[in-house]
């Protein structure tokens, strides 16, 4: 009988819990710790104290004491609120799970009040008390979450990024509500001031700028700039200068480079000043290829820009690579004017849609202005001629930046269709499309040359599409326009042969892949980059010009490639760069010329951008830092790689 009682007591010690909650690791240690081999049974005396037990190791006993309340009955008493809980009755032990829940789950009123007074941060090292708040662990072992120490500098960095990414005002760090929130979130963080967070945002901008600078320094070709002038509630303007280029991996990049405050935005020098400031800031003298602007300029402004192109981009078509109008702005202006010309009819349709019926003239006696059959006919004609403009604008909203050749197809078809419609015998069609054709003709004349040389760089079309489209548009005069394009592209190619390009790492790598550089073991400085060999350079140009010219002619004379729907023209030139070493460099620059000055999200905007009054109150350097850093942070993880060309390189 004693042995049975002994086994029974041992079993009760080994399985003390009646609670069905999962056991945590400390409880398992308490329960599974080996018991002494010899157990003395208490005599049959009700007044006898229970057998002395082993020392308790669970941290729950830091918050509870054990009190004897009767014969063989002990209870656990909370040190905080003095409540008592069952612990043992005779040989039966209640365990500690219910005691832990009392502390961790907020049922202890004293602990709950203390937690409200002293909020713990996720960055703070948890105390022993915090272990109670975790969900009870399963019996199997799981990976532990590492503790993160509080880092004030990291917090400041994240506040700066938050303000930049979401256009929050810098003064928000001094707003009482935000200050109270941060203090409750992390009392150890010393809240920053306006001046401090302004410096942190500028520091973030400078760090990101160093990364962009390295990409530009390694740029193998040239850069194309776009200028987008924003107005403001004051008399000043802000010039957004973006750069578009193709890197050494033949991937297209578009980066916002500068936001320059122009005190006199209407002056003839505003645009040329911004271009010069950008080139100086990024050390890009000699790397400029083209400039695209967002509005018509005065003749003096255009002359200033062309002169700047000629100086900063010597020998490249004498400053002709100036795209006079942003495509998105031009299309938007035409559409607004077209809608305004039939404003009354458009209003009828919109009112009908608002009333959720198109037959309200019979069902609603108070509605007398429903569109007539003739109205619907005119709306249909309007949509017919607006649809090509919408489709073209849609190309500007794609995730991947489209290459320049894409827009020649759209532009020449719009030019042709509007010209035909303007000559229509239908008076409504003629009156509607005549002014549309006049406005688009201005865009066509300013951008036709650049779009044409871009499509020549598409091996699916080359000069053939230029000849075909010009014959449709210009009729008998087409030959003279085709000659302008043909002469221009040959002149540009010869200038690429003669123009000494900066020896960036990308060009050096390509040069090493094509030929072996001669050694100069004597250190006499007889390399091609040495001094005193100007005459030799001229000789090389004269003797190789005919050979280099034949590289372009060879490309133009080869058969056209099949017209597949999704064709990566930049990828094709990458695969064929060894066959066309000079022409591929020219193609890389031409195909990166932007036709639009605004980002994809602003293509369908109908009003000019205006800088808000809050940012106008900041220093110009701070405005530039906030806006440029946002552009860089947003794009650093979404750089779109061009698709791989499914085509073998020529042998």
UniProtKB/TrEMBL annotation:
Limits of the BED-type domain: 55-115
GO biological process terms, semicolon-separated: post-embryonic development
Protein's cellular compartments: Nucleus
InterPro entries: hAT-like_transposase_RNase-H, HATC_C_dom, RNaseH-like_sf, Znf_BED, ZnF_BED_domain_contain, Znf_C2H2_sf
Keyword Zinc-finger: yes
Pfam families given in the database record: Dimer_Tnp_hAT (PF05699), hAT-like_RNase-H (PF14372)
A Gene Ontology molecular function term of the record: DNA binding
Principal location class: nucleus
Subunit composition and interactions: Homodimer.
Name under which the protein is recorded: Zinc finger BED domain-containing protein DAYSLEEPER
Species name: Sesamum calycinum
């Amino acid at each position: 009988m004693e042995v049975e009682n002994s086994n029974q007591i041992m079993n009760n010690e080994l399985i003390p819990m009646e609670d069905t909650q999962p056991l945590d690791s400390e409880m398992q240690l308490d329960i599974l710790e080996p018991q002494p081999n010899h157990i003395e049974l208490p005599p049959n005396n009700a007044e006898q104290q229970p057998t002395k037990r082993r020392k308790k190791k669970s941290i729950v006993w830091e918050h509870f004491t054990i009190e004897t309340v009767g014969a063989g009955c002990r209870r656990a008493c909370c040190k905080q609120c003095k409540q008592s809980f069952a612990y043992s009755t005779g040989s039966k032990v209640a365990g500690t799970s219910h005691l832990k829940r009392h502390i961790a789950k907020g049922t202890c009123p004293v602990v709950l009040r203390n937690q409200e007074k002293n909020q713990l941060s996720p960055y703070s090292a948890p105390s022993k008390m915090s272990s109670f708040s975790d969900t009870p662990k399963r019996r199997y072992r799981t990976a532990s979450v590492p503790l993160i120490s509080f880092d004030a500098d990291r917090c400041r960095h994240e506040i700066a990024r938050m303000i930049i990414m979401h256009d929050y005002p810098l003064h928000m760090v001094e707003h009482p509500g935000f200050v109270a929130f941060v203090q409750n979130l992390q009392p150890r963080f010393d809240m920053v001031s306006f001046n401090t967070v302004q410096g942190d945002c500028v520091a973030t901008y400078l760090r990101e700028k160093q990364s962009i600078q390295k990409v530009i320094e390694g740029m193998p070709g040239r850069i194309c700039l776009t200028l987008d002038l924003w107005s403001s509630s004051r008399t000043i303007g802000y010039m957004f200068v973006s750069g578009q280029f193709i890197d050494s991996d033949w991937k297209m990049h578009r980066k916002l480079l500068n936001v320059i405050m122009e005190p006199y935005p209407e002056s003839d020098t505003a645009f040329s000043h911004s271009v010069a400031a950008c080139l100086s800031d990024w050390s890009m003298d000699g790397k400029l290829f083209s400039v695209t602007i967002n509005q018509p300029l005065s003749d003096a402004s255009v002359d200033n820009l062309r002169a700047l192109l000629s100086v900063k981009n010597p020998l490249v078509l004498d400053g002709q690579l100036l795209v006079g109008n942003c495509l998105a702005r031009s299309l938007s202006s035409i559409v607004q004017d077209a809608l305004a010309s039939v404003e009354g009819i458009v209003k009828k349709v919109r009112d009908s849609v608002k009333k959720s019926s198109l037959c309200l003239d019979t069902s609603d006696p108070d509605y007398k202005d429903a569109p007539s059959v003739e109205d619907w006919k005119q709306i249909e004609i309007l949509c017919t001629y607006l649809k090509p403009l919408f489709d073209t604008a849609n190309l500007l909203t794609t995730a991947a930046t489209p290459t320049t050749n894409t827009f020649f197809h759209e532009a020449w078809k719009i030019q042709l269709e509007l010209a035909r419609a303007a000559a229509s015998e239908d008076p409504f069609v003629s009156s509607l499309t005549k002014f549309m054709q006049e406005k688009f003709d201005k865009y066509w004349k300013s951008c036709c040359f650049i779009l044409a040389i871009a499509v020549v760089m598409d091996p699916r079309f080359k000069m053939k599409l230029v000849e075909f489209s010009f014959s449709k548009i210009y009729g008998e005069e087409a030959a003279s326009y085709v000659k302008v394009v043909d002469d221009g592209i040959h002149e540009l190619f010869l200038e690429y042969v003669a123009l000494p390009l900066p020896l960036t790492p990308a060009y050096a790598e390509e040069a090493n892949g094509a030929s072996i550089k001669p050694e100069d073991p004597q250190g006499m400085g007889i390399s091609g980059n040495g001094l005193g060999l100007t005459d030799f350079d001229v000789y090389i140009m004269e003797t190789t010009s005919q050979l280099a010219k034949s590289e372009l002619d060879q490309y133009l004379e080869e058969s056209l490639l099949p017209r597949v729907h999704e064709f990566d023209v930049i990828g094709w030139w990458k695969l064929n760069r060894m066959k066309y070493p000079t022409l591929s460099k020219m193609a890389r620059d031409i195909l990166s010329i932007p036709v639009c000055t605004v980002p994809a999200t602003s293509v369908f905007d109908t009003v000019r951008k205006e800088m808000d009054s809050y940012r106008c109150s900041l220093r110009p350097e701070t405005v530039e830092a906030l806006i440029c850093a946002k552009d860089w942070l947003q794009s650093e993880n979404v750089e779109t790689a061009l698709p791989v060309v499914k085509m073998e390189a020529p042998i």
